[in-house]
Structures are given as C-alpha cells and as structure tokens.
Amino acid sequence: MDDPASRDAKIVKHGLSKNLNVAIEVICSRTPSQLEELKKAYRTMFTNYLDEDIESHAQGDNKKLLVAYAGAIRSERPEVDAVMVEKDAKDLFKDGEWRYGTDEETFIRIFSERSCAHLAAINSAYRKLYVNSLKKAVKRETSSKFKSALLTILRCAENPGKYFAKALHKSMDGLGTDDETLTRIIVSRAEVDIEKIKAEYLKKYGKPLSDDVHSDTSGQYRAFLLLLLNPNA
C-alpha cells in the first residue's frame, strides 16, 4: 500500500477532475506538514504542481481558498495570540453577518493563514462575542463548494477525528453504503489517526466503528477494511 502522502496525492488528482468535493476534503483536512508531503508526492507522481491543477479545475472563491490554503505556511503549535484571535473574530463578523454581502476575501485570508489552534480559538471567541457559532455564520454567508471548504477547515481545526467519524457514519447511514467515501477515509487515515477517529465514533454513536463496517460490508472488502481498522486483531 502507498504511503499516506502518495495516497492523498492520488485521491486529490482524481478528485480535481472527477469529484471536487473529494479534493476539498483531503486538502482542507490535512495538517500543514501533511499537506507539504502531499504536494511533494503530487509533483513527483504527476509532474504538475498541485496549485496549478487547482487553478485548472476549481472556480471562483473556492479556487482562491484552495490555492491559498495549499500554499500558505501555517504553524502547528498550540499557542495562540488572544488579541489576534479576537480581532479575527470581529473581522469575520464585520465582513460576514454584519454587512449586506459577504467579503469573501476576509474569510479566505483568515482561514488559509491561521493555524488550527488559532481557528478553533476564533470559533470560541466568535460564539462569546456574537452568541452564534462561526460554523453557522459560514453556512449562512457562503455557499456551494466554498462553504464546504471553509467548514472542512474549521471542523478539522477543532477536531479532525470527530469530522471523519461523522463522515464515516454518514457513508453507512440509511439504505445503501457510500463505499467510495467509506474506503477513502479508512484507507487514507489508517496510518495517521484512525485510533482517534474510532474513539470519536464510539463516543458519538455509542458503538465501535468496526461494528458498523462489519454490518455494512461483506466478503474480502469487509475483511480488508476491518484489517485496517484493527491491524493487531
């Protein structure tokens, strides 16, 4: 099996031409160091630079955000500047909910340049200042794939394990299984943070992720996914 960066590069390459939401999920959920490794693998495997292919396949504000997010240098440290956090929260409110017509450039700048810890702190500050959550503001003030990218960045800044647990549950909920999503997430996170995802799944849904995977799949496909979920079983 490929290393995580090579797997991500393949998923993004396919997603950019076939299903942009998949490319958005991968690009916007990775840490800065993971994204750097993805970009190196992408360049090696496909000769193009990732930002060039984003420019070719994405559009509008979503393209601006993805290019900025993939290219920005962000800290992975947990420390945040409380003064800057409050300023960013106020800027997002001023250029979003407070005005008629959203200034998307403010959202692009803050979401692409700030660290995960900083974005999580902005969300907390936003709620304290304006009662409403930043996620709800994003849902109201933006749309389509741009909204999806912003929400992915914010949710993964707060708790990537919870984000992927919810995505996995959605892929198996109701009639039929979204095998593409189920496989993509388990395979791409198996060597990264699958234990955290499993813990969040158990916490939110009250049963092990492996139980639902077992119920929704069969044969060698089931055995493959369960092996990735429980490699030491």
From TrEMBL:
SMART domains: ANX. This is Annexin. InterPro entries: Annexin, Annexin_repeat, Annexin_repeat_CS, Annexin_sf. GO terms for biological process: response to cold; response to heat; response to salt stress; response to water deprivation. GO terms for molecular function: calcium ion binding; calcium-dependent phospholipid binding; phosphatidylserine binding. Belongs to the annexin family. Coiled coil: none annotated. PANTHER family: ANNEXIN, ANNEXIN B11.
